[in-house]
Specification:
single chain; alpha/beta; Rossmann fold; 4-stranded parallel sheet; 10 strands; globular; TrpB-like_PALP; pyridoxal phosphate; Pyridoxal-phosphate dependent enzyme
Length: 314
């Protein structure tokens, strides 16, 4: 399980540049005052498809030659990765086959359909998602684009932190949420390669704290029946992702459902940014442990903004 190198991340950035935005960085005087430090937000909610996932999906799909792509691409995802694969496949001129849990947010289902993908619904368990995806691949011959446990996905997601640290090179901390671990591992790797003095912090819901448990024990741990308002984080961390996290992450903070919802509302009201609950997990961790970030420069990657606006949690 070779980790992506700095060269891999740079090549990924060049490969995907035509298909992504270098998203802007924003600040909030209100949040700076609450924390007692400087906080910078890398707004991947402004990314194509509304989330950072476009980076990894584009890196995988565009790494294949046109003649290798003809059968299309398949994946399983609750939403943002599904949209990214659908969009990147459309950019490549091929079909996307997406397996989604039947309880995925309608806004994300509609977006996947809008990019022209074929959706197959499954039960909302990791086992059924993977099983249904295998069946789709057997039927179609499509190439699988794993949501997170893939070095090319990790290298693609790493480009967000690369852009961040190039624009804000003196960060003391960087915080991202962690689900499957593509962004978490990619960001940690980037810092390890280009800014080793910046400490990588991960944020996770208390109700889905498998990465925290794994990090503390040194061995992969699972969580039975995960439930959280942060629907994008309801997966267990990948093996390759975890190996990177073990080596490059400084610490992991867990937050409650109420803390996630409060952080989401704060960003909506004070920064006028549409962020989804999974993004708010990182903000909640910042606010819960603000004494650790006082007097420091902290970067947070806002991972996405795909929200069912007629069913907000606050």
């Amino acid at each position: 399980m070779d980790f992506p190198s700095l060269s891999d991340i740079k090549r990924a950035h060049t490969r995907i540049a035509p298909y992504i935005y270098n998203t802007q960085i924003m600040t909030s005087s209100t949040i700076d005052e609450m924390v007692g430090g400087q906080v910078f937000f890398k707004c991947e909610n402004f990314q194509k498809i509304g989330a950072f996932k476009m980076r990894g999906a584009a890196n995988v799909i565009m790494s294949y030659r046109p003649e290798e792509r003809s059968a299309g691409f398949a994946t399983h995802s609750s939403g943002n990765h599904a949209q990214a694969v659908a969009k990147a496949a459309a950019e490549a001129g091929v079909k996307a086959y997406i397996v989604m849990p039947h309880n995925a947010p309608p806004v994300k289902i509609d977006a996947v359909k809008g990019y022209g993908a074929e959706i197959t619904f499954c039960e909302p368990t990791e086992e059924d998602r993977a099983k249904t995806c295998r069946e789709v691949i057997e039927r179609t011959g499509a190439i699988q684009v794993h949501p997170y446990n893939d070095a090319r996905i990790i290298a693609g997601q790493a480009t967000a932190a690369k852009e961040f640290i190039e624009e804000q090179p003196e960060l003391d901390f960087m915080i991202t949420p962690v689900g499957g671990g593509g962004l978490a591992a990619g960001s940690a790797l980037t810092l390890g390669h280009v800014s080793p003095t910046t400490k990588m912090i991960l944020a996770e819901p208390e109700a889905v704290n498998d990465t925290y448990l794994s990090f503390k024990s040194g061995k992969l741990q699972g969580v039975k029946d995960p439930k959280s308002v942060a629907d994008g984080l309801l997966v267990s961390v990948g093996q390759l992702n975890f190996e990177i996290i073990k080596e490059y992450v400084h610490d992991i903070y867990c937050v409650s459902e109420e803390e996630i919802i409060q952080a989401m509302r704060l960003v909506w009201e004070r920064m006028k940014l549409v962020i989804e609950p999974s993004s708010a997990v990182a903000v909640a961790a910042l606010l819960k442990h603000k004494e650790k970030f006082a007097g420091k420069k902290t970067g947070i990657i806002i991972t996405g903004g795909n929200v069912q606006v007629n069913d907000l949690p606050f």
